[in-house]
Design brief:
Keywords: Glycosidase, Hydrolase
Distance between the termini: 14 Å
Number of helices: 17
GO molecular function: beta-glucosidase activity
Protein name: Amygdalase
Bound molecules: 6-O-phosphono-beta-D-glucopyranose
GO biological process, one term: carbohydrate catabolic process
Number of domains: 1
Radius of gyration: 21 Å
CATH topology: TIM Barrel
Family: Belongs to the glycosyl hydrolase 1 family.
Structural class: alpha/beta
Strand content: 5-15%
Largest sheet: 8 strands, parallel, barrel
CATH superfamily: Glycosidases
């Protein structure tokens, strides 16, 4: 049932794993200003000026799990899993510390040379996200992604890394979860919501500029190496209607449309008509030239990458409905689903539905580049952790993925997220652990930083070895 060449992987991203936040000539990114949740991370996420002017006690990204120095040990460990790929990101601010520098930073490029060479030693191919919440902070003074000049800066950065790594990276993802720019515009688009007179317009302008830059990057990437596969990415999860009341169904339908709105452009080459009406209805005056529309039409994605954690639940009547947590934003609590401590609900069938829907909609191969289950947990006296709950989560989700494949969905590969414990993007906690490998660090960065395999490590190793046969 599984394709012979199906890819199994591990995943992380630069800001949540590398640390070394000022090493090797790296510039700052917004992530470097965010404290942990206990010091008001969400406040900072929605108020960049505050984040820039506040001195917090602890910044989780500054050292993260020190992947910047410990990557040889980490890659060696991941290689034991027998995986085909490691999804990670290049931190743009390592390559162009201010975003618009005349020349790239050689030390930053050399770091990724070393990292990718280490992967190659074990036959692991890097799958690289070009922008995973790490637009150089200096660009905020130029209006962030709202400014069309940022399109050129991003394209220059992409061209630089495409040329440098053209023989070692095949799969590229332009923007991590592009729909994030609409949900959390600071993180996704370097837009301070407090400073915008018309935040809706600012968000869509930033998104549009990202779409254009991603299409241009796709064009240039293919010119540099025609074998490149350059994909877009959605933070996915079907929106269910709370009841069969048509008003709820319509509300859920619109939530899906909102989720798809940007990937529609990346995969189909144009804004869907419902979006054009949305812009008109909300008097959004998008600055988009005919030339840009032409670029969007011509240079569409080669595949659709996705993260999946859970589905969402939507109602037309929000009164008295219990809420719960979730990726990008919270959602209504689904009485049929269990959830983890952060309220993220567990829904493998929703995964099958989401995969089917995305494939039907875009008719492009899908690439599952994030899936996982966070738990607050600690190992026993032998540094071992029996994380059967995590195994159960993965088993049910991989099974759902296989069901989707037997439904006809074309899937390139699958990876668990945060395969080695990393800093959480939303909470800044180390204790929000997704890993198959435990990292001995707490929420203040205290600990040895040593790595220990959890029970799920050996379980996943067998899944990879048997190409999904032995779950
Ligand atoms: C995705 C992001 O939205 O969710 C990751 O791409 C993030 O960066 C992941 O880590 C899980 O979210 P969190 O907040 O639990 O780390």
């Amino acid at each position: 049932m599984m394709k012979k060449n199906f890819l199994w992987g591990a995943a992380m991203c630069a800001t949540q794993s590398e640390g070394g936040y000022l090493e090797g000539g790296k510039g700052l990114t917004l992530a470097d200003l965010f404290p942990s949740i206990s010091e008001g991370r969400w406040d900072a996420i929605f108020n960049i000026e505050k984040a820039m002017n506040t001195k917090y006690q602890y910044y989780p990204s500054h050292n993260a799990i020190d992947f910047y120095h410990r990557y040889p040990e980490d890659i060696k460990l991941l290689a034991e899993l027998g995986i085909n790929f490691l999804r990670t990101s290049i931190n743009w601010a390592r390559i162009f510390p201010n975003g618009d520098d005349a020349e790239p930073n050689e030390e930053g490029l050399a770091f990724y040379d070393r990292l990718f060479a280490e992967c190659a030693k074990y036959g692991i191919s890097p799958v690289v996200t070009l922008n995973h919440f790490d637009t150089p902070l200096a660009l905020i003074h130029k209006g962030g992604w709202k400014n069309k000049k940022v399109i050129d800066y991003f394209v220059t950065y992409c061209e630089t890394v495409f040329r440098r790594y053209k023989d070692v990276v095949k799969y590229w993802i332009t923007f991590n979860e592009i729909n994030m720019v609409l949900g959390i515009p600071a993180v996704g688009g370097l837009i301070d919501p407090n400073k915008e007179e018309n935040i809706l317009e600012a968000k869509f302008q930033a998104a549009h500029n990202q779409l254009v830059s991603g299409a241009l990057a796709t064009k240039i990437g293919h010119e540099i190496n025609p074998d490149f596969e350059i994909g877009c990415m959605i933070g996915a999860g079907k929106n269910y209607a709370y009841t069969c009341n048509p008003e709820d169904v319509w509300e859920a339908y619109q939530a899906d449309q909102n989720e798809f709105s940007l990937v529609d452009v990346q995969a189909k080459g144009k804004y869907s008509d419902y979006m054009l009406s949305y812009f008109r209805r909300n008097e959004i005056d998008l600055k988009a030239t005919d030339e840009e529309m032409d670029i969007l039409r011509k240079y569409t994605s080669d595949f659709v990458a996705l993260s999946y954690y859970s589905t969402r639940l939507v109602s037309s009547d929000k009164k008295d409905k219990e809420k719960t947590g979730g990726n990008i934003s919270g959602t209504l609590k689904n009485p049929y689903l269990e959830a983890n401590e952060w309220g993220w609900q567990i829904d493998p069938t929703g995964f099958r539905i989401t995969l089917n829907e995305l494939y039907d909609r875009y008719d492009q191969p899908l690439f599952i580049v994030e899936n996982g289950f966070a738990v607050r947990e600690s190992p026993d006296e032998n540094n071992y952790l029996e994380d059967d709950y995590r195994i159960a989560y993965f088993r049910s989700h991989i099974k759902a993925m296989q069901d989707a494949m037997s439904d006809g969905v074309d899937i390139i590969g699958y990876t668990t997220w945060g395969t080695i414990d990393i800093v959480s993007a939303s909470s800044g906690e180390m204790s929000k652990r997704y890993g198959l490998v435990y990292v001995d660090l707490d929420d203040k960065g205290q600990g040895t930083g040593d790595r220990f395999k959890k029970k799920s490590f050996d379980w996943y190793k067998e899944v990879v070895r048997s190409n999904g046969e032995n779950l």
